[in-house]
Automatic annotation (TrEMBL):
The keyword Transmembrane helix does not apply. GO terms for biological process: pantothenate biosynthetic process. Its main location: cytoplasm. This is Pantothenate synthetase. Keywords: ATP-binding, Cytoplasm, Ligase, Nucleotide-binding, Pantothenate biosynthesis. Pathway: Cofactor biosynthesis; (R)-pantothenate biosynthesis; (R)-pantothenate from (R)-pantoate and beta-alanine: step 1/1. The active site is at H37. It is found in: Cytoplasm. PANTHER family: CYTIDYLATE KINASE/PANTOATE-BETA-ALANINE LIGASE, PANTOATE--BETA-ALANINE LIGASE. It comes from Sphingopyxis bauzanensis. The gene is panC. Catalyzes the condensation of pantoate with beta-alanine in an ATP-dependent reaction via a pantoyl-adenylate intermediate. Beta-alanine binds at Q61. Its EC number is 6.3.2.1. GO terms for molecular function: ATP binding; pantoate-beta-alanine ligase activity.
C-alpha cells in the first residue's frame, strides 16, 4: 500500500491505478479506524477494482471549542489495518497540503445542513462538504462510500454531488455496532469504562422509540420518553432527537415512510450520534 502526502504524487498514483479502465472506490475517514471504517473498505473492494482510503482530520469541520486537537490519531496502526484489507493507496495529506495559504472557498449545502447536527455544530457541514468535494477532485473516484451512522452527512454529500454534477456514485454503508448495540465511533475511545456501560442506553432508547413510532405511537410522547431514558441511563443531555424524512431530512410530526430517527447525546465531554430506520 502506498502512503501518499502530496497532490502531484497522488495524481500519478491514481492514474496508474486507473490504467486499463480499472475502477476506484474512495473511503474518506478521519482515521482512528475501527470495524465500521473497515466495513466501508470491504464494500469498496466489492464494488471497485481498487480502494483508496483518505485519512485527514479536517480542521474546518470542528468548532473552536470542539475536539480537533484531542481527536485520536493512530496512523501507523491504521495503515497496518488497511494493508490487511487490501487497500491500494492511503491518501494522508497534512493540513498545509489540503488548505494551502489563501484557501478561501467553501461549499454550503443550505437546505440539509442547518438542522440537527448542523444546529449544534455551526459551520460543521460546510467544512465536511468542502473537504469531501476536494477529496473527490483529488482522487476522482468512480464511487465513494460513507457510513449511515452519519446519516445527515450522507444526505448532504449526496445532495452536494447531485447539485455540483460530481460524476461518481455515492454509496451508504450500514451502521456497524458493538454487540450491545452502541454504534462504533472513533469517539467511543473517549468514554471511561463507566460511561461505556451507560452508553448502551442511547441505542436502546432509539430502537424502542423507532419501533413505537412505526406502530403509531404518539410522536411527542415517544420522543420525550426516549430522551428521558437516555438521560436516566447516564447521559448528561440530549442535543436532539427527531423523526425525519429519510431523504429530505424534513422534520416529521406524523410518521410516514421512509423515515429515520436521528439523535445526538452528550455523556461527559463526549458527543455521540446515532440513528435508526423507522418502519
Ligand atoms: N459504526 C459505523 N458504521 C458504519 N460506518 C461508520 C461507522 N462509524 C463511522 N463510519 C463512517 O466512517 C466514515 C469516517 O468516519 P469518521 O472517521 O468520522 O469515524 P467516526 O467513527 O464516525 O468518528 P467520529 O467519532 O468522528 O464520529 C464516515 O463515512 C462514517 O459515517
Ligand atoms: C467525511 C469526512 C471524512 C470528512 O472529513 C468526515 O466527516 C467523517 O469522517 O465522517
Ligand atoms: N464522523 C463525522 C465527523 C465529525 O464528527 O467531525
Amino acid at each position: 500500500m502506498q502512503i501518499i502526502r502530496d497532490i502531484a504524487t497522488l495524481h500519478r498514483a491514481i492514474a496508474a491505478l486507473k490504467q486499463d479502465g480499472k475502477s476506484v472506490a474512495l473511503v474518506p475517514t478521519m482515521g482512528a479506524l475501527h470495524d465500521g471504517h473497515l466495513s466501508l473498505v470491504q464494500m469498496g473492494r466489492r464494488v471497485a477494482d481498487h480502494v483508496v482510503v483518505s485519512i485527514f482530520v479536517n480542521p474546518t469541520q470542528f468548532g473552536p471549542n470542539e475536539d480537533f486537537a484531542a481527536y485520536p490519531r493512530h496512523e501507523a496502526r491504521d495503515a497496518a489495518l488497511l494493508v490487511e484489507e487490501g487497500v491500494a493507496l492511503l491518501w494522508a495529506p497534512d493540513v498545509g497540503v489540503m488548505y494551502p495559504g489563501g484557501h478561501s472557498t467553501h461549499i454550503e449545502v443550505a437546505e440539509l445542513g442547518a438542522d440537527y447536527c448542523g444546529a449544534a455544530r455551526p459551520g460543521h457541514f460546510d467544512g465536511v462538504a468542502t473537504v469531501v468535494a476536494k477529496l473527490f477532485n483529488q482522487v476522482r473516484p468512480d464511487v465513494a462510500i460513507f457510513g449511515e451512522k452519519d446519516w445527515q452527512q450522507l444526505a448532504i454529500i449526496r445532495r452536494m454531488a447531485r447539485d455540483l454534477d460530481f460524476a461518481l456514485d455515492i454509496l451508504g454503508a450500514p451502521i456497524a455496532r458493538d454487540p450491545d448495540g452502541l454504534a462504533l465511533s472513533s469517539r467511543n475511545a473517549y468514554l471511561s469504562p463507566e460511561q461505556r456501560s451507560a452508553a448502551v442506553a442511547f441505542p436502546g432508547a432509539l430502537r424502542t422509540a423507532a419501533a413505537a413510532l412505526a406502530n403509531g405511537s404518539d410522536m411527542y410522547e415517544t420522543l420525550a420518553k426516549a430522551e428521558a431514558a437516555i438521560v436516566a441511563g447516564g447521559f448528561d443531555s440530549v442535543d436532539y432527537i427527531a423523526l425525519a424524512d429519510a431523504d429530505s431530512l424534513e422534520r416529521l410530526d406524523i410518521f410516514r415512510a421512509p423515515a429515520r430517527l436521528l439523535a445526538a447525546a452528550r455523556i461527559g465531554k463526549t458527543r455521540l450520534i446515532d440513528n435508526y430506520p423507522v418502519g
